[in-house]
Amino acid sequence: MTKDVFDCIRESHSVRNFKSAQIPEPTLTRILEAGNMAPSAGNLQPWYFYVVQDLSVKEKLANVAFDQEQVSDAPTVVVVLADPARSNERYGERGAQLYCLQDTAAATQNILLAAEGLGIAACWVGAFDEKKVAEIVEAPPRLRAVAIICLGYSDEQPKQFKERLRLAEVAKFIH
């Protein structure tokens, strides 16, 4: 049973302490499939998901993510990579510099929401040396590391809902 999407959005938060139990493969597959169903410019789907469960590789990733321990502690880490060349073929420089990043961010958000809906804790990590991350996971040079997603079962106390700006502070209606 999964949560309602609005509950997932409201209740999701970054978890940095994980239990050691691995996510069952069917659950992990569903989470990755959600990422793969994200919208993308021209339906080009310029993303790749490198799933890392090997401790030595996770430790290397944590090191180049400025020693963020949740990267090595999470049972599963997904490195989301963009393929700028794929977007460039149809959309030129704007595709390579913007669309592929928007597309992979949408895939990342789908992964986070699917994880929340299935009871899996997550943390979106954006601070890392992208070239070193790509090298560590042995990605082809054309790919660009965009996000690291830590996945596992939370080993933290439940948190209160996150504070958000009021909609009136961030939305402008133009009639």
Automatic annotation (TrEMBL):
| InterPro entries on file | Nitroreductase (IPR029479), Nitroreductase-like (IPR000415)
Could you tell me the EC number(s) of this protein? Answer: 1.13.11.79
Q: Which Pfam families match?
A: Nitroreductase (PF00881)
Alphabetical UniProt keywords: Flavoprotein, FMN, Oxidoreductase
- What cofactor does this one take? FMN
- List, for all copies, the residue spans of the domain called Nitroreductase: 9-80
Presence of keyword Transport: no
Q: Which family is it part of?
A: Belongs to the nitroreductase family.
Kindly provide the name given to this protein in its UniProt entry: 5,6-dimethylbenzimidazole synthase
